[in-house]
TrEMBL record:
Annotated GO MF terms: sequence-specific DNA binding
Residues annotated as transmembrane: none
Keywords on record: DNA-binding, Transcription, Transcription regulation
GO biological process: response to amino acid
Residue ranges constituting the HTH asnC-type domain according to the UniProt record: 2-63
UniProt keyword Transcription regulation present: yes
Protein name per UniProt: Transcriptional regulator
Stretches of the chain forming a coiled coil according to its record: none
Domain of life: Bacteria
Recorded GO CC terms: cytosol
Family matches, as Pfam families: AsnC_trans_reg (PF01037), HTH_AsnC-type (PF13404)
InterPro entries xrefs: AsnC-type_HTH_dom, Dimeric_a/b-barrel, Tscrpt_reg_AsnC-like, Tscrpt_reg_AsnC/Lrp_C, Tscrpt_reg_HTH_AsnC-type_CS, WH-like_DNA-bd_sf, WH_DNA-bd_sf
UniProt keyword Ribosomal protein present: no
Length: 150
């Protein structure tokens, strides 16, 4: 269980992972060195997985964000593993989730335009062995992205 201070630290880091120890300490009411020790402990304990950069897909020419639901035929363990590895290798895919229920997988992908989306679906996704169906929807607006604990 996280302490209230640790939750505040995580919240501040989720807003700005480059915040200085001095500024983080001021936000959460601790000294800079105490903040650093707590962040290192959160990393060691696996609470903080990594610090990263969030890239704007539109700014790098990937204007279309689509969500695709994928159904696959029943697969043995090795075939399923190979399928997941193949999808994970596609740079267009920014999120890839195995689901329970009627849909087997959900992916988020970013492509330049509608033609690139159609090409990806027809020539890369639907061409994979075992894919029975794929249903796509274009994201019109992102309302909330990312997990930020309170």
């Amino acid at each position: 269980m996280l302490s209230p201070i640790d939750k505040k630290i995580i919240h501040e880091l989720s807003l700005n992972a480059r915040i200085s120890w001095v500024n983080l300490g001021a936000e959460v009411g601790l000294s800079p060195s105490a903040c650093q020790r707590r962040v290192e402990a959160l990393q060691t304990n696996g609470v903080i997985k990594r610090f990263t950069v969030e890239v704007d897909p539109v700014a790098v020419g990937q204007a279309i964000h689509a969500v695709v639901q994928i159904k696959v035929e029943r697969q043995d363990v090795e075939t399923a593993r190979a399928f997941r590895a193949r999808l994970s290798s596609y740079t267009e895919i920014s999120g890839f989730y195995k689901l329970s229920g009627a849909i087997d997988y959900l992916i988020h992908l970013h492509v330049a335009d509608i033609r690139a989306l159609s090409d990806f679906l027809d020539n890369r996704l639907l061409a994979l062995d075992g894919v029975v169906d794929a249903s796509s929807a274009i994201v019109l607006a992102e309302q909330k992205v990312g997990y930020r604990p309170a």
